[in-house]
Amino acid sequence: MQPYTNPTLSQWGPTDYIIVTGVIIGISMGIYYIFKAIRAINKP
User: Fold this and answer.
1) CA pair distance 5, 24, nearest whole angstrom
2) 3-state class of 4 per DSSP?
3) Could you give phi then psi for residue 34, rounded to 5 degrees?
4) Alpha helical stretches, state H, 1-44
5) What angle (nearest 5°) sits at the alpha carbon of residue 25, between those of residues 19 and 30?
6) How far apart are CA 21 and CA 29, in angstroms?
7) Cα–Cα distance between 28 and 34 in angstroms, integer?
8) What sections of the protein cross the membrane (predicted)?
């Protein structure tokens, strides 16, 4: 784990934040759909 005060964080450009935001949204959407599929399978 890197420390929270990461000096490279201040060198990030706007595109880096867009990419990170897209990745976070993609992961959270993937988890959401996986949970939906599991709940649909577990329904009697």
Assistant:
1) 21
2) coil
3) -65, -45
4) 14-42
5) 125
6) 12
7) 10
8) 17-35
- What is the pTM (predicted TM-score) of this model? 0.51
Task: Report domain extents, the chain.
Answer: 12-42
Residue 14 three-state SS: helix
Query: pLDDT per residue over 1-44, tens digit each?
Result: 555 565 565 677 888 889 999 999 999 999 999 999 999 998 87
Helix or strand run (H / E) with residue 9 = none
Please give the Cα distance from 28 to 21 (Å, whole number).
11
DSSP 8-class letter at 1? -
Q: Collapse the DSSP code of 8 into the 3-class scheme (helix H, G, I; strand E, B; otherwise coil) and give the result.
A: helix
Question: What is the DSSP secondary structure assignment for residue 29, as one 8-state letter?
Answer: H
